[in-house]
User: Fold Serine/threonine-protein phosphatase 2A regulatory subunit B'' subunit gamma from Aedes aegypti.
Amino acid sequence: MSFRDKLLNNLENVNENCVRQQYPSKTDDEIEDILFQQYRQQINSHGKLKRMIDQSGRSESYRFIPQFHFELPKNTDGLAQKLREEARTLFLQKRSKELLDNNELKLLWSLLEKHHSPPLMGEEQYINYENYCKVATIAGDKFRRYLTASTFARLLVSSSYPGKISVMSLFNYAMRKVWLQQTRIGLSLYDYTGQGYLNESDLESYILELIPTFPQLEGLEKSFHSFYVCTTVRKFFFFLDPLRTGRIRIRDILTCSFLDDLLELRDEEIPKDAQEMNWFSAPSALSVYGHYLNLDKDHNGMLSKKELIGYGSGTLTPIFLDRVFAECLTYDGEMDYKTYLDFVLALENRSEPQSLHYLFRILDVEHKGYLTAFTLNYFFKGIQDEISAHRAEPVNFADVKDEIFDMVKPADPSRITLKDLINSGHGETVVSILIEFHKFWAYENREVMVTDSQTNEESHNL
Assistant:
């Protein structure tokens, strides 16, 4: 029955005398309007009640929809937590068995070689779609998830041979996919909540158990393992958790290049220069920790502002260091190794958005979310003090300010936001000339240095 029919039915059955006695001074039209409003409200209230009953699960139609959200077990419910953990372990083990092992990968390679489509392109083998489907059929169900039509189409886009794909590219794709899935399963074993995230302690456990599998770390003393783990984990969290939520997504770990750099330590031989460039290598970790110990003059395991001023070129301004200790986590006014690692990562990667986010927070003295001429002048005073100490020619702040705003080209010409700084592509330069005299001097004299370099090159050629 429609709303109109229900309303008319109620109006026909109503006792108008009762309503007239209640409203003796009302006209017939007014009485009709009162009745209309009453029954409209009654019908609407009935509809709301029905919806509430439906949402509470008492409706017949809702009995057939399965529950799709389950709350995590509480910390006090040990049995439920243990059950969830056991279920996740069994699920991950099942997924692990679905992956290709070494023997199956060798079988895949032999099948691809056997069914490649002549002629050869140099020494490289190619395969067409018909033979590709044959390989998928012969290999069996376990291989078909790696030999799909979409995989062939994606590899065909980058192929240099029309209608065929490289056998080597296909095999590398399969190996890479197996590796990613193995790594995801390995990381997921440490995701105790099953939410797709790892917190710091989860990732620390993962790294600690990886150390014995890395030939490149065999020489590390066990007493240094905790410092190595801290050094490694900080890089993941600095770049993948810039908002300091205390957790990072497993998906982000897999898609960034850091995991490749870390697992590179499984190689028996890595060139010395490659080790020095790899943050996760033993020489790099020992170097970072060694610099920390060298700065710690009183050997109390922490760094004061006076000790940190010796970092790098030793020309970070006291004003900047005051802000670092004001904004970063310290203990009785001193910095621990974990905070020091964030500081190092920010200064060594100044062009990266995460580093600019870290440094912008320190530069934003007024906590307004943007930098003004006042903010720039506040930090440039530290540079001017260094200029005076070196008895160099004074530099006018107005010129520096105009140059910075010209470089950044902010949306609002009176203020610079973090977004402006990142989008400009000059964030590293802007930050460096405000916080470090050595960098400012190099920037200020860049034209002279280029000229001298060209002159030296010409003299060498002569």
The beta strands are 126-128, 164-166, 197-199, 247-249, 370-371, 416-417.
